[in-house]
Amino acid sequence: MGELIFEASGLTKEFGGVTALRDISLSLRGPSIIGLIGRNASGKTTLLRHIVGLQLPTRGQARTLGVATRRLQHEHLARIGVVPDSPTFLRWMSVGEQLRYLSAFYPRWDMERQSALAGLLDLDLHADIGGLSTGSAQKLAIVAALCPRPDLILLDEPVSNLDPIARDQFLKLLLQIVQEDHATIVISSHVLHDIESTVDWIVCLNNGAVAADAALDDLKDQYAEWRVLARTRDLPVRFVDAFVVRQTVLEPRRARLVVRTAGADVLAFQRAHDADVEVAPLNLQGLFPILVDNGRH
Amino acid sequence: MRRGAFLHLLDRPAGIAFAALFMPAAVIMLFSAGGRGAARFVVGAGLVCFIVGAFGGTTLTDAARCSSAWTLPRYRRALLVEFAFCGAVVAAFVALIGAVVATTPSQTFLLAAVAFAAYALGGALFLTPEGSLILPVAFIAFIAFVASRSWTPAPVMTAPFATITVSAAVSALALWSAFSSRTFRWSAMMGPREDGRWMWNGWPTMPWWPRLRRGRAGTGPQGVSRAPYVGTSVLRGVVSSYRPMRANAWLAAIAGLSLFYVVAVGSNALGSVPRTGFWIAWAIFIVFSSLNRSSYDQRSSASRTMLPWSRRHHLAVAYARNLGDLIVIPLVLSPAFAAFALGNPDLLGPAGRAIAVVAIFFPAFQWAAGPPTGGRWADRGVAMILTISVAMGFLVALLLVVSGLPLLIGPGASQAVALGLLVAGSQVLNWRRLKGYFATRDLVGGEP
Question: Is B444 an 8 Å CB contact of chain A?
Answer without folding.
Answer: no
